[in-house]
Records
---
Amino acid sequence: MIAPAETPRLRRHLSTSAWLLVLTLVLLGFGFVASRPATPPFHGPPTGGALQAERAIDALTHPGPEPTALSLLPADFTRVTGVTPGAAAAPDGTVRAVHVDGGCSTPWGDDNTKWDYGVACKAHDLGYDLLRYADKVGQPLPPSVRASLDSRLSTDMHAMCHIEPAGSPRTCQLVASVFTAGLNVNSWHQRWGPPVGDPIGPMLAGVAVIGCLLVFRLRGWLHTRRTRPARPLVTTTAPGPASPWVTLGVAGLVLLILGESVLALARWAGADEAWLWPFTWLAQLAPVFFFAGGRANAAGWRHIRESGGGYRQYVAHRASWLLRPALVFVVVALVVPLALELLGIPQGTNAAIVGIALHPLWLLAVYLLTVAATPFMLALHRRAATVTTAGLLALVVLTALGSGWFGSDLLRSASALGLALLAQQIAFGRLPTRHRALLVSGAVAALAGLVALTTVGGADPNLLGTPGASPALAAPTLPLLLLGAAQLCVLGLFARPLARAAELRWLGAPVRFALRAPMSLYLGFLAAMLLVVALVYLPPDPAAALNWLTGPKTLMALGLLAVPALIVFWWFERHFDGYVPLHDSRPTGWRAHAATALGTGYATIGLFGFALTRFGGDTGGTVLGLPLDPIQNLIQLLLGVFLLHAVRTGVSAATSTWVVTALACVPPLLEVASGYGPGPLTVAVYGPTALFAVGTAAGNLISAKTVAQTT
């Protein structure tokens, strides 16, 4: 008798399970770190009621036979906090001032345990009430005060294991250690500031939506990776050189990043600023980057038109290439501050390093706007090239002057965008390479104007990392305008040698690798930069310096960047050749129009939001009126990536596309409903988007049902 064949079991790819596990852990870690509040401002030594609160906390952390802290409480403590304190005898013989209704808070409720940590926890709760009091009267106490309260509670819990071990002293010590770890993690999450309630609901909803957007995006990437035909082991022809304009753009961006980093290290090492400004003129290559990007954008638009595509396909295709490396800055914004915190780098240096690390994100955000504007600016160039260029020049000058007169950040940003568009507009034409005398005269005149502006005109000669300048350019706009004019004249003079250099294979290889693996390269560069910064703050003693370099905190700080670099390269960029092919589909219909507009808008807001928020560095600010929040900014960025990818792959009309879009609008609306953040503009942006997405999805379902009933 033949046994019936067994149905084969369906097995999920091990890599898929690994992806789900890694994605879950990363999302939980991201949500925990991203929900940290801003660092409490320092208002100087406390006075009045805040000073009394600090003295009462000091008494709580040094208990004795009397509840001394009760007599030191501010007179208006109960009125401000609503807490009526009391006294309780502790098992160690001391008498503590306590929050009578307090207890040992755990995720499952108050649990004083069988070793009776209750009195110590209630005293700790009263200390937290005093921290909240100081915050409410406008003088939050320094982090060391909360740390002293946590240390006192940890000491008391461990002491109970000797006073009342309840037959299990080792278990008591373990539980006390677990409680201490939870206490320290919670205090670290709140930056050792006043204990506050966290918006758990909106945070969890945001993390869930981020996971949904990532799963939808990575699902297509995994499918493409698994179905891609195997590469031949031996290639018959060597790869050709990269495009001259791509080579110029990559070289300009790399030299700009390296130059800014080296100059920052020189400043931290104590170099005189009077000797550094000439090097900023050499390293500031933002105009060259936007000029080369303009040539690449024009070539991309012509290629799309020749292949039968239109604006929607062009934006979706170019943005897919741009936003791929943009996601790495989520990792940068997340782990760089953590790594610097582990290394104990001073706060001022910390902020400067994060600003340098996120500078390419500003350039990328502005460049995305120039990409979207390319077809329209090209049309203006064909019809009125001189008038358009003159108009952009006037826009740059007027907005730069206006930003100085009125102190407007909006005008400062507008001048930066205008300069990027001006460099791109010049790239649409041809530099007068045959008129060398004209180019030499232009370069000399631009440099003379720059010297006059920075000497007689009083402008800052530092053109990289200038305080108060537009973050996208890291320099004042008017001096950079003159420097850019000189740079473009020099490019015209050396156009032929530069074109020949771009054809060299030894130069093309690193350019192609930079296009292939920009994310892992940048993370590796930041890890190296972090190590150099750490060397600046090494202890003078060689033995202590070696111990510090090989210590767990230092290794963990470097691993926060090195490990993601390896993961990104191995899972993403190892199989990527730096070229995003055109998709066969042609996005058509009003849904594709809507997806293109929404995707570009949300991606741009997400990029600028991430550049501004810095994970708690500027919490409370806004970008275009929308609140700065890492979770919401990541949702905006991922939603933009998702919609533009849907347009590129021809699924912008799918019901699932608009269901996911509607879900992405839930967390910010839930945050407004919970009372966090500004509401009117958030509702005005996300409300119509959600209604449009729901209406589109419902329309698709109704149409499908009607077709099914009529067939």
---
Amino acid sequence: MLVNVDCPVEWLDHELYKSKKNGNVHCSLTFNNLSQQTVKGLKVIIFCYDQFGDPIDMGRNDNGFEYEIEFKEGLPPNCKRATDNKIVLSGYQNTRKIEVDILKVLFDDQSLWAKDTTESEKVELIKIENRVLLKFVQERAGADAAYFARQTQHRWTCVCGRLNRDTQPNCKRCSRGKEDVLTSYNDEATISHHLKIRKQKMKKMMKYSSYAAVVLLVVGGVFYGYKTKFTFSTVEDQKVREVLAADGIIDTSFIASEGSDGRGEFVIKYNKNGVVKNKVISDTTEPRIIDIDSNGVNEIVFTYTVAQSDQSKAQTFGWDDIYDFDIVKEELTFASSEYPDYYRNHYMPVLKKRSAESNDPLEKQALSVLLQAAEGIIQGNFIPDANQKEITLLMKANESSANPLKISKQDNTFYIQGVTLGMSIKEAIQILGEPNETFEINSKVAIWYLENDLKLTAEYAVAAIHYIDLGEFDQKTLEQSRKSLGEPTEKGQKNFSYITTTQALRFHEMVEPGDFRVQLMAPDSP
């Protein structure tokens, strides 16, 4: 990234867009106003680079062009904003990365800043890739902290990514202190050390809080005993024992609801400030209660069903998430990333055993994705979420790679990209979106151009689809899709058919060797 430490405006980021109509590449630029005046316009040079990071030379011995940017509403002080309009990178269709150098800044009072003799510097920022460490840094320093702080000759880089003069005690962008960021966030080892200290402090706080609660409750219990001359009934004795317990979970229970497929109410009985309470979590599966880190405090593990391929003969796949019970907030808190040992010692061995015993290639591949995610938690480069969004995305990505044509079978019905025979064209449009082409010959035809250069054609009369084909694809894609469907009903040298009582799914080679197409039609079609 190009940075001029003297410029009152800084370029932060960009987005690239490609027009489907003419193939032109556009960009939008985001700038941050570091000054105390409103900015009306900028003059910049935009440098264009290809996917290899090489300059795109247009025959002028440079890879950039000048462009004037106007902020119609103005760019206020200490404000960041994207350009009002997208900028056409005319003639630079192969652009995959850009750099921006600011030449002039026009303020609303018509005063001007010009680059003149000042210099722009190339800055290579190092992102904090470890997600656990990144989360810790952002909790301590703020959501914009994403980079390692670095000291170079006459310069230092803040965790927000801003380059500053060595003489500046605070970051020009975010005002963080130089000494603080350089000593706290300069490398992985330093951040890991601070994270470890925080965890130790939290455990000590919990331990001492429990001791203090016990002391107070014992004093209260003795006073109560003195008042009653220590003559407790059995029920009263039980109550006193509960009151004398330290803050924390006393017991847990689970009651399954009738006809709920194993779901029910999970109840946590806990003591807080001498009062015994119940926390009820409704409509949930039965969790496991485990003291993962052997510190005398139990963690709660819920297993969630995650998406799987319809073609797999495997049972459902389970992803485990770990929760702590926060006595102060009196609620479950998501904590999977805090317990890598659970995934190493409990979760992964079960998956590895299941994978070793499986003969289903789709099941083995899905299990490998779950194992990869668990390993990611251990290494700190995968952070799960309470809604299982991240793990679901991984499973869906795996399903797409395992079945790139998205061909599935349910009972006697085949689906191609979610569409099948007898389906109305309106339903197909809901699934695939508006077709790219429509026309009519002997019947009505709709064509969709899909990812990976695939073309799906559907023929329909009135409203119902009676023919579908998808192509063209290579031998590897064919084999991946066939693997999910099993053995064909009919098999030729380059042709494979899967036939049910109502449909026929036929793979065959095109005129060009190595290119294939799949058709879905009535079983008696030629």
---
Amino acid sequence: MPLISPVRRLLAAGLFALFATVAQAAGLAADAIAPAEPDAVLAAQLLGAEGPVTVIREEGAVPGWRAEAGGSVLGHLGSTWEIAGSVGYSGRPLDVIVALAPDGRIAGAQLMAHAEPVLTLGISDADIARYVDGFAGVDLTAPRESLADARADMPDIISRATVSTAAIRDGILRTARALAIGRGLISETGGIDRVGYTALDWQGLVATGALAHATMTLSEARAVLQGGKNPPPEGEAPFLDLWAGLIDPPTVGRNLLGQQNFTRAIGALGAKDVALILISSGLHSPRGTAWRQSGSFDRIAVVQGGVRLQPTKDDYIFVKKLHIEGAPAVKEIGIYRLAAEGFDPKEPFRVEITATRPAESGRDDVTTVIGADYALPDAFQLAPPPEPEPLWRSAWQNKRPAIVIVLAMLAVLTLILFLQESFVRRPMLWRRVRLGFLATTLVVLGWGLNGQLSVVQVVAFLHSLLTGFRWETFLVDPVIFILWSFTALGLLFWGRGVYCGWLCPFGALQELLNNAAARLGVKQVAVPQALHERLWVIKYTLFLAILALSFYSMHDALVLAEAEPFKTAISLRFLRAWPFLAFVALLLVAGLFVERFYCRYLCPLGAGIAIPAKLKIFDWLKRRPQCGRECRLCETKCTVGAIDPLGRINPNECVLCLRCQVIYHDATTCTILKRRSRAPGATGDSQ
């Protein structure tokens, strides 16, 4: 198995490096569009508002806009390009304005900018608008399943636009979640469970960690308050026995207070307030008496990092007794509202009770602090709002039958190519298997599974390498991803023919029609070699033109990519406007007289794959020294005219049909073998 010359590999690598340099020099920053800005009309439309709406820009970690009417907030808006940096399959910015209602639901969305191939041609604006509109009403706090499951008014994807619509979905959901967290509509780390309830007695509640405990005996207090007037007496009785905790979870508050008192206490809280209960016994009172005149509970402090809260009388609710079974005898019960910027009730904090005595000698007061460290138990916290499940995961799960079919086809093809030596020695088997495989490629892979690769995907891949590659973008369509992966691997072993000769549905359609035409006696046209080689220039020029134009205008590049008939003949199954149908018919008619006419001279995808095909490591197609000099049969029989008059196989053009290898081993067809068989002492050796 001779190795292909390293010079070819250097040429291919150099060509791609040249493209990368040209692209960067052309200024890919042109792709960085300015985020779309919603006006009052759009904001009112998305938020369902009537009357005048004011749109106010908001900067910060999550930039966006706030919509107001009559002094109240209607909702928030954000750009997917600005917040999530969303890009489409084309590698270009994809911008959707997302509107969020104050309750954390998506109020609406509108596509503002894109350069998606399947959206530009073949899919109507109404289809896209209907898909984007379908996100209205999505609840960002709902369990993950409700975000990933299909909705009656919104398809998971638009047929033939799998990757692009997945990119839109990803951008909308990521932007909406970031906007909701940034505006405080949902919590980034979850929230307090204010619904769940389990009946518990005192010991059971304490066992959950719902209450923090701190105690100081009289003797301990006397020691730390030494030097102050009226020190506590000696003894092991409590100076202060303190229990502290949040009562917002019903399992805590309802058990401690009873349903009626719990409802009264929690009902008085604001949207972001929490309620702290302090239960104490002992000589020292946490609330004291000075608060009645000062209005502030100077003995009580709640400390969390740099935040220090001190409740006021407006934050206080008196509780007469505990309703929980097994409660200890207590002296004082109070509920205190906690509400302040920077305080997070889900993070640990410390409750500090200060005890002070005037100094005997006129010095500063003698003070001590009894502290209870509290952390809200995990059992009383809600899980964080889920990240939207990547659509590619559900796509792979939903398309498991298609994946199995494609993998089975690739396994069969791999066996054919690895065992080609024995395969091509049986001309009838080769012919039947090849025609059967091509028919499967056309009907099952092409029309059934929409497994037609395109030059648009090559351009999108190159753009993604230069502007930010994301696996998720290409994993959304498993059939296309598997085909490209196999094609890329096959380029190293066999060259471009792995896909072009066996897995391309349109190529299969051409070859099957030509085979039928030949059987019906349609005379095949032999294109002169000089003209044949010069016509190759068309497809390479077309590929370079599409690629170069994409750096200037992706829209124009996609229009030029309509030189590919794949969308009309395979993806849309001939359900298209008559000019496209006429173009495909012209190509197929030409292919009746010149086998694989389109593949030979016009296919930009084939040209794009042929360039890296120069990196092919092995050459498993056999030739004899006499090929081209004493016999030119393979040249005339080649499916795409890839064999030159000297008998050399051009790897850029070969589609690996193996027809020349069948002739090579067929003693009844190969001129060299027939001559050897007639020679005196012939052994029948076919090598």
---
Amino acid sequence: MRMKLGKMSLFYKYLISYALLLILPVLVTGFFVYQYFVGMLQTQVLQSNHGMLEQVRDTMDTQLSEMRNIAIQLSAKREFDPEQLGEAYAVYEAKEKISLYAEANTFFSEVVYKAHGVPLLISSKSTYLPSVFHQMYLKEQMDYEQFEKLLALDEVHVQAAASLKSEQDSSWDPYISYSVPVPEIGSSIDTKGMLIYLIKENEMKRMLQSFLPYEQSNVYIVDQQGELITSLSDQLKLPKELLYSESELSGIRQLGGEPYYVSRITSASSDWTYITVVSETQLMKPVDELKYKATIVLALILIIGSSIIYINMHVHYNPLRRLIRIVDEKLQQSDGGSRQGLDKLRSAFDYMSTRSMTLENQVELSRPARRQQLLTQLLQGGTGDEEAFRQACEELGIRLRGSYRVVCMQAHPNERLDSADSAPATSCPWRLMVPDEIDMYQVETIQPHRWIWIQEWQEGEAWSTWHKELDAATGIPWTIGVGDKCNELSELPKSYIGALTALQFHLIAGSDRVILPDQLSSGDDKFLAYPARELDMLSFHLKEGDLAQTRRYMENTLEQIRARSQSLLTAKYIYFDIVHTILKAVSNEALHRGIAISYPDIIELTQCTSYSQMDAIVWKTLDEIAPLLEKQEQPGEDMLLQQIIELLHAKYADSQFSIQGMAGHFSQSASYLSRYFKEQTGRTVSDYLNGIRIDEAKRLLIETDLTVTDIVQRIGYSDPSSFIRKFKSELQLTPGEYRKRMQKPHERPPQ
């Protein structure tokens, strides 16, 4: 029996745990939701009751204020003076005035005016003797003596609708009387009469009913003396503890052994107090119904959820059984069959974890090799997407943010400074010579006694001091070749070319020295026209798969380099740009076809001593990518794009040249040509034309002594200031600053 339970324990263990995971959150959530809902309901009821009371108070205050205002308005009427009411006409006028006020206000049913010393009551309907009026309206509520006292009052007074009889007639509609003195005009003390308003109690109750719709509830209105004026229901008497409470209150109180929601508020203008009581049992009926329905829903959720869990467990446990059986077969020989159930899976996971840790260790050990691969790829110009390349480098701890340059170092152990026996240089402590805040990375090389560093550029580099410290620390003379500063990663291969060339320069200038970029050329040497247009056209024909046209432009470009370059080093920079242009133009096609592009060896380029050797590298690269240029020809579209580009190069100097004129030249619409050119080149016509003009401006700034104004006229700009702004936005230099910088032999035109 125990063995059987042991076999089934895994299934039922998970079944019970999943059932608990379903039941506990549902129960806990339901409990807290119920408590939250009840608390929210209580808060809403108290707020609703308080708001209702404020509405009742505001409504009653408005009505009472109107009735007091009527008394004030009557004080200004001469026909309501006691001495005037002795005449029949004045009595008639007073009755008409009162009827106007009665018709305008439906809150009270009747209003009667009693002037001091006048034995008549004037109402909106007629005139009465006091005894007749009492007999008609108030005989059920007060005796005649009480009525006379009411008429003799000289202050605001309210009289509740109390009955003199123990048994009331069902047809009796009681009145609430509200007396307001009519002041003498110009006096705040003396009065000339009294207005008595008769308000039907049932009308007031109907008004209160609209504010409080609950069955077991009541609204009480109490005057300033604590006397009950009226209430919504006569069945729920006003508790004394609420009647004599001095302060406003709200909350749940026990009244008659039952809980009630109580709210109380007092009017500041009339001193009347308004109290509501609502039975908690009445309010909680919807909550109890919701609780009952929620219990049923929760029970259904538990039943359905448990059934789904059981079915899923039954279905998904079979693969687990098969997995345990497979593990049992695989590990049977290694553990001798001693493990059972999950222990076999645990053993398999331990084995996989060990293998994973081993692989992680191997990956960690390969990090230096991966770092060297990326650094070597960087020097060869194979960065591709520069931002993605930076991210890959940063994952391996290579931070390349800012300006960098390449530094090549050659040790000369046969020329030891201490005259001891020569020995190979096994390490280069250059990192110890350079300040720690300068970022640098070593690139491994197989050449003996040579080290390559990618070093961050900073102002005030002390090359001479660092070189002396290196000599002193190693006892060996060193030659250090320094490449140009580069702001972009794609420019580092040119810095590498410059550094290797500088290192080779020690055969002429001597070893044990630092050779900086500006020491490689004579003071009169400077770059002539950079073949920007030819490289643009070369890239265009490469992308279009036009191999014949590509070779023709290639020959033209190489011929220009040989004719214009004044040093082999500057030519090497341009040759590198040519190779880079070729590989970049076909990189997308190579990626699409799954063909890997091999970048040429930079060292091979630096070791070239003639233009023919560098030409051979370029032609070899072009031959290698020739299969990627095999595309379907689209002569019509390609011919149009080539004609547009040639027209732009021919007309760039015309300041009146426009897209509309170009569209007329090709008999096409301007919008079509603009859209077509953008789709084919990724650039707008204006951007491309501006690029041609900027390139020509750079050539003229370098090759000639023309003023900026003359250059502006030659390249098609009409305004020198707009040209200067455009030039600076493109190169971050003004034309004058660019010309001065290009006079330095180690500078080169930006790409």
